[in-house]
Design brief:
heterodimer, A: 113 residues, mainly beta, 4-stranded antiparallel beta sheet, 0% helix, 55% strand, B: 109 residues, 5-stranded mixed beta sheet, 9 strands
Chain lengths: 113, 109
């Protein structure tokens, strides 16, 4: 199995620019999660999809953040405009079903200068 | 959110068993108990999960107290590669994960 695939692995951008992070979940998994990790706040759940439908986006910090899942094999997390405080590692995870184990991707390290 | 309490850090010697405790006194009947670990510079890795009964897999064992207010992750023979932060998480039905600070496990050669 390829596991959860995320791209890019590293992203450096200037404040105000749009950033798009991509995720390919494990084939057959119907739940997808986006997380953010910083030293200060630890791991935070941003949004959760089930069968491509956003179920809970209460963790999305503000309107600058948006996420989509156009099909079962692809999801994006977009930040527009980006700010330095968005600098973090963003993880995507998928699971076969909601209460089961989640499998995380390698993460995207985002640096906003 | 359902909360868990774990020691901040633990040490173990290589090739010895490790028992990582987790308290979750406010657990409800539909909460699953999940364990994940995060190695340095890597994403979290699923370890094991259970609901009421003890569980075993190739990575570890999960022992759940009869009243479900605590659980223990058991690594049967610690290796240097097991040095990581271990997270115990309750997965309430209808809600989502909350990752606490976890337990940082050091394995001494």
């Amino acid at each position: 199995d390829a596991g959860v695939i995320q791209s890019p692995r590293h992203e450096v951008t200037e404040m105000g620019q749009e950033v798009t992070l991509r995720c390919k979940p494990i084939s057959g998994h119907n739940s997808l999660f986006w997380y953010r990790q910083t030293m200060m706040r630890g791991l935070e759940l941003l949004i959760y999809f089930n069968n491509n439908v956003p179920i809970d986006d209460s963790g999305m910090p503000e309107d600058r953040f948006s996420a989509k899942m156009p099909n079962a094999s692809f999801s994006t997390l977009k930040i527009q405009p980006s700010e330095p405080r968005d600098s973090a590692v963003y993880f995507c995870a998928s699971s076969l079903d909601r209460p089961l184990g989640q499998y995380f991707g390698p993460g995207t390290r985002l640096t906003v200068t | 959110d359902a909360k868990t309490t774990q020691p901040n850090s633990m040490e173990s010697n290589e090739e010895e068993p490790v028992h990582l405790p987790c308290n979750h006194s406010t657990i409800s009947g539909t909460d699953y108990i999940h364990w994940y670990r995060q190695l340095p510079s890597q994403g979290p890795e699923y370890v094991i999960h259970g609901l009421t009964s003890n569980v075993n897999n190739r990575m570890a064992s999960l022992a759940i107290a009869e009243d479900r207010k605590s659980s223990t992750l058991i690594l049967h023979r610690a290796t240097l590669r097991d040095a990581a932060v271990y997270y115990c998480i309750l997965f309430p039905y209808g809600q989502n994960f909350v990752f606490g600070p976890g337990t940082r496990l050091s394995v001494l050669p």
